[in-house]
Amino acid sequence: MSKTSLFLALLASLSLALPVHASDRYQSRPPVMVSPDLQAAWVMQLGGVPTQTRGLAQPQRMRQAILAGRQRIIQPQQVIRQQPALRQQPVQQRRLVQQRRTLFPQQQQPAAQQVAMRPDKPVRTQIDPKFLPQMVEYLTEQKPGTIVIDTRERFLYLVMADGMAKRYGVGVGKPGFEWAGTHKVTDKREWPDWRPPQEMIAREAAKGHFLPAHMPGGPENPLGARALYLGSTLYRIHGTNAPWSIGNGVSSGCIRMRNEDVTDLYERVKVGTKVIVI
User: Fold this and answer.
1) Can you give the C-alpha Rg of the chain in angstroms?
2) Residues 6+ apart with CB under 8 A from 114
3) 215 contacts: CB under 8 Å, gap ≥ 6
4) Whole-model pTM above 0.85?
5) Residue 19: inside a domain, yes or no?
6) Same domain, yes or no: 138 and 252
7) Rounded CA separation 11/2 (Å)
8) Do 242 and 150 belong together in one domain?
9) Domain hosting residue 168, numbered range
C-alpha cells in the first residue's frame, strides 16, 4: 500500500469517529439580510417568521401595529407645531388694540363740550317730514312778513299774502325754559360766534358739561349758519349743528332751525321784522 492510500484511509477513519453537526457547514454566521421593504417590522427584517408572512404578504394586524406606532410618534410633534395659545395670542392682541382704536380714537374730545352735540335722546339722522318747510294756509291778522312761532306745535310761520304762510319746523326751549312775547329782529349775522351766558356755563358745569367762554362761528358752532337776534333778550332764531333736534324742546329758550331753513328765512326778513312767540 502506498503512502497516499494509507493517508486517505486514515482520514476516512477519523471522519467516522467524530460527530457531524449542521452548523459545521459554515465557519461563521452569515450576515443579517435586511428586508428591502423599509416599512416591514424589524422582526421580519431579521427573519424567524413563517415564509408566508414575509415580503408583501404581511398580516393586516402587523400593518395596523406599524401605523399605530407611527401615529404615536408623529402626534406629539404635531401638537408642538400648533401651539395655538402661544402663536395666536399676539394676533388677538393686535385685533383687540385695533378695535379699541376704532371705538376710542386717539384724538380725544375737547374739554369744552357743546350742549347741542350731547342730546339726551339717541341721535337721529332724520326728522319728521312734517317739520320740513312747506306752504300752508294760515289765517291771521298779522301783516305779511311777520314771524309767528308756535312753541307748542314747534312751527315757525312766516306770514305771506292771501292767507298763506311758509311754515318751518323748529326746536324750542326745554321744560322750564319756555317763554312767550313779542319782539323785533334787531340784528342778523352769518355764521355767528357763540358766547354762552354765565348762567348757562354754571348750569352746565353743575351737570359735568363744561362750555367754552367763546366759540367762533363755523359748522360745529351750536348757533349754526345764521342768527336773528330778538330785541335786547339773549334769545335768537338760529341754525344748529344738531338738526335731529328739530321738533323737540331741547334748547335754553332759543328757537333753532335747520341750517338750510334758517338761511332761507334769513334772506326773506329784514332787521325790524316783528316776531311773535306764543
Assistant:
1) 51
2) 211, 215, 220, 222, 241
3) 112, 114, 193, 194, 195, 221, 222
4) no
5) no
6) yes
7) 15
8) yes
9) 115-277
Residues 63 and 129 in one domain: no
Instruction: Give the span between the Cα atoms of 263 and 51, in whole angstroms.
Output: 106
User: Is the Cβ–Cβ distance between 251 and 174 less than 8 Å?
Assistant: yes
Nearest to 253 by CA among 273, 225, 231: 231
Pick the more confident residue, 54 or 25.
25
Q: Is 183 a catalytic residue?
A: no
Confidence of residue 205 (pLDDT cuts 50, 70, 90): confident
Task: Note whether 241 and 158 are within 8 A (CB).
Answer: no
Looking at 21, 209, 214, 238, which residue is catalytic? Answer: 238
Residue 5 falls within a domain, yes or no?
A: no
11 inside domain: no
What does the pLDDT look like over 213-235, one tens digit per residue?
889 999 989 999 999 999 999 99
Active site residue 254: yes
**CATH (domain of 156):** 2.40.440.10
Q: Is 173 a domain residue?
A: yes
54 CB-contact burial (10 Å; exposed 0-12 / middle 13-18 / buried 19+)? middle
pLDDT tens figures, 250-265? 999 999 999 999 999 9
Catalytic residue among 21, 209, 214, 254: 254
Residue 124 CA to its chain's centroid (Å) = 20
How many domains in the chain? 2
Tell me the pLDDT band of 199, cut-offs 50, 70 and 90.
Answer: confident
